Amino acid sequence: MFSKPENRKVYWKEFMHQCNDIGIGSLGIVVIISVFMGAVSTLQTAYQLVSPLIPKSSIAQIVRDTVLLEFAPTLVCIVLAGVVGSKIASELGNMRVSEQIDALEIMGINTKTYLVLPKIVAALVVIPMLVVISAGLGIWGGRLAGEAANILSTTDFDKGLLNAFLPYNVFFAMVKAYVFSFIISSVPAFYGYYVQGGALEIGRASTKSVVVSCVLILFADYVLAAILL
Amino acid sequence: MIEVKHIKKGFGDKTVINDVSAVMDDGKCNLIIGASGSGKTVFMKCLVGLFRPDSGSILYDGEDFTNMDAADKKEIRKKIGMLFQGSALFDSLTVEKNIQFPLDMFTNWTLAEKRKRVDEVLDRVELRDANKKFPAEISGGMKKRVGIARAIVLNPKYLFCDEPNSGLDPQTSLVIDKLIKELTQEFNITTVINTHDMNSVMEIGDKIIYMYKGDKEWEGNNKEIIFSKNQRLNEFIFASDFLRDAKDMRMLEQTGKIDNDRNMEDLIR
């Protein structure tokens, strides 16, 4: 399927272009989602922890683990499946329909290597970074909301954050991030690359790729949790 | 020279190309003509390797392209330039970068050398002023010229043009035809053109292959086509009264007679 690049410089440029598109292009939405998801987690956890026997700092502990184990990798990747996945599928679909892929083939370029591989590698590099950023911002959002809503002080929150912290959870989050990154980039690339027809089919391929990616992410989420936890 | 030997191509039960053999001559414009659905686009896609024929072979200067391994095929493809029906320019790149793309990919030239070559081909297709524009900002005729510039930037030995005049006005079509003809002669390229355009047939058809329902129905040149007795070809080429009149006038000029029972006085009037 993939072959040796015809010119490493051009491929590197394409890889950097994809890193920029996938990473920087999705940063805004990731920041917004992460901060709010952390903030809402704090508020809802506090709402459910009514017992005076449970210390307030437990809220931070719950927010930390929820964000690390589920929200940052899974929720963010599902959103990215929509943002990045539809972009990849429609870009490749448009290139297929307008014969740009044929033009590259005729030039003697392996189009799978040139068009698909940089997208997958870029996703594998930048999406885990986005997940790390998301986890950090999620926890920060929770801390901010805890203080703003007068639920717990930042000192209590920080104390809870450090309590019973398992580095394995970070490892688990990163495994999920890598698996989901591959799904987010490869599934839409497949649907986009093999699209046939016109504008309508590009739209269909784009929608289908997002739906399939989301289902696969949820399925992989369950399998990874069952295996690794 | 490209030799096509008994190629067949089908999709499912439908045969699209049925045992076609032909030779595409060096330094000439080889036209493939035929009605929609006659198989000429599939034929061209087989020639450039986008489709693999079910049987038969395609030889580029004696080398069997059909059964080559991927590495050898890649080498042949570096000698091929192609102009697509919709131009197939890369939307995200400027005109200049579109033309520079094959140079970036296949040469180790410096940026200055690449720019010089891009300027040369832009001059050749008379598009120097459009170099910084994006494909969406230029007209259909300009897109075709950019497509030609990109196809010739690596000095190809073979040039394929799929419907080069589709969607263009007659005047721009003539400019494109003239450009393709000049480039073919200037660089001794083997040019293969798929077309419906009768102006192209008459103006640049050094060799014409007429396809009908997947078969090669007729072969000749733009001089012989006027006198062809092939009924299907005549029905296709001279489909309108205007074209039939033009044909008969041309025959009248050249031979002093026409070969059908039309009223000469009506024709002359």
Strand content of chain A: under 5%
Q: Which descriptor suits the 3D outline of chain A?
A: elongated
Could you give the order of the helices and strands of chain B? EEEHEEHEHHHEHEHEEHHH
Query: If strands are numbered along the chain, what order do they take across the biggest sheet of chain B?
Result: 6-7-8-3-9-10
Overall shape of chain B = globular
Low-confidence segments of chain A, ≥5 residues, pLDDT <50? none
* CATH topology annotation of the domain at 1-79 and 157-171 and 184-226 in chain B: Rossmann fold
Number of helices of chain A: 7
Radius of gyration of chain A: 21 Å
Topology:
The complex is a heterodimer of chains A (229) and B (269).
Chain A: H1 8-48, H2 57-97, H3 100-106, H4 111-148, H5 154-162, H6 167-193, H7 199-228
Chain B: E1 2-11, E2 14-24, E3 29-34, H1 40-48, E4 55-60, E5 63-64, H2 70-77, E6 80-83, H3 95-106, H4 111-124, H5 140-152, E7 158-162, H6 170-186, E8 190-195, H7 198-204, E9 207-212, E10 215-220, H8 231-237, H9 241-255, H10 264-268
Parallel strand pairs in B: 3-8, 3-9, 6-7, 7-8
Antiparallel strand pairs in B: 1-2, 1-4, 4-5, 9-10
Describe the structure.
- The complex is a heterodimer of chains A (229) and B (269).
- With 229 residues, chain A is mainly alpha-helical.
- Chain A has one domain.
- Chain A has seven helices and no strands.
- In chain A, helix 1 packs antiparallel against helix 2 and helix 1 packs parallel to helix 4.
- The longest helix of chain A has 41 residues.
- The radius of gyration of chain A is 21 Å and the shape is elongated.
- The two termini of chain A are 35 Å apart.
- In chain B, strands 6-7-8-3-9-10 form a six-stranded mixed β-sheet, with helices on both faces. A four-stranded antiparallel β-sheet of chain B has the order 2-1-4-5, covered by helices on one side.
- Chain B has 269 residues and is α/β, with parallel strands linked by helices.
- Among the domains of chain B are: 137 residues, Rossmann fold, CATH 3.40.50; 32 residues.
- Chain B is built from ten helices and ten strands.
- The mean pLDDT of chain B is 87.
- The radius of gyration of chain B is 20 Å and the shape is globular.
- The interface between A and B is medium-sized, with 16 and 23 residues.
